[in-house]
Design brief:
Blueprint: H1 3-16, H2 23-29, H3 33-38, H4 48-69, H5 75-85, H6 88-97, H7 108-112, H8 119-136, H9 139-154, H10 161-164, H11 166-178, E1 183-190, E2 197-204, E3 207-214, H12 217-234
Antiparallel strand pairs: 1-2, 2-3
Helix pairs in contact: 2-8, 4-5, 4-8, 4-9, 6-8, 8-9, 11-12
Length: about 240
């Protein structure tokens, strides 16, 4: 790790509010496999193992948080609430909050395909940073870090609008993956005028990628975007 990289990571430490005893952990957390594959002579490790650990730390910490905030909820409801905040979209948003994309080490291919803005890479980077913090400090400090970020989300009856804006997330994914903006169109309507429901389709090119229903066109479009995101995540 050269001095320029160290200086850059020390700046990130200020944002994370943690001074790493082993700065190489943070460096590895932000090293994508594409960079490692193109720089084998450096003997680096990518962040995939840290991503695996970070995912487990997040699941445990958020599960404990939910148990405390919602003591009356059953397992099914707790699982739904956890899934609404521990998934690619909010994790990527948290990565953007800490500007993790700017610190990623990427191979040329990922760099050229705007990898620094890809939700999947950002979410993975956030999980890896959580793992690096866990290994460098301890569970209590890491848990406090995670709780501070997630408590405002889990306390709400429904996810924050920031995380429910599926259309914005879909637009970002489409720009990065397909270099094209999605369109929405009403496919059908059902019910009487006072209680009408709309079905919207998310269209990319000539293909309807996903559909969703809502009490108005805007809600239907959001549900179509959500369905598309869930489909892409399932195939990731």
């Amino acid at each position: 790790m050269n001095e320029e990289r160290k200086k850059s990571l020390r700046e990130l430490e200020e944002t994370l509010k943690h001074r790493f005893a082993d700065l190489s952990l943070l460096d590895t957390a932000l090293t994508h496999r594409s960079f490692v594959n193109e720089s084998t002579e450096l003997g680096l490790r990518d962040n995939e193992r840290l991503e695996f650990l970070g995912d487990a730390v997040l699941e445990l910490t958020v599960s404990d948080l939910l148990m405390r905030v919602f003591p009356e909820c059953d397992e099914g409801e707790l699982s739904k609430r956890r899934a609404s905040v521990v998934n690619e979209q909010p994790l990527a948003e948290l990565a953007r909050h800490f500007r993790l994309g700017a610190y990623l080490l990427l191979g040329r291919g990922e760099e050229n395909s705007q990898g620094r803005t890809k939700p999947s890479l950002l979410a993975n980077a956030f999980e890896s940073v959580v793992a690096a913090l866990f290994l460098d400090a301890n569970f209590d400090k890491t848990s406090a870090f995670v709780r501070r970020l997630f408590l405002p989300l889990v306390e709400e009856e429904s996810p924050s609008p920031l995380y429910r804006d599926y259309k914005t997330a879909v637009q970002e994914v489409c720009q990065v993956r397909f270099c094209e903006l999605p369109r929405y169109q009403v496919l059908s309507e059902a019910g009487p005028d006072h209680d009408k429901r709309f079905q919207a389709g998310l269209v990319l090119g000539k293909e309807v990628l996903a559909t969703g229903w809502g009490k108005n066109k805007k809600e239907a479009e959001q549900q179509a975007a959500r369905a598309a995101l869930e489909k892409w995540q399932a195939n990731h």
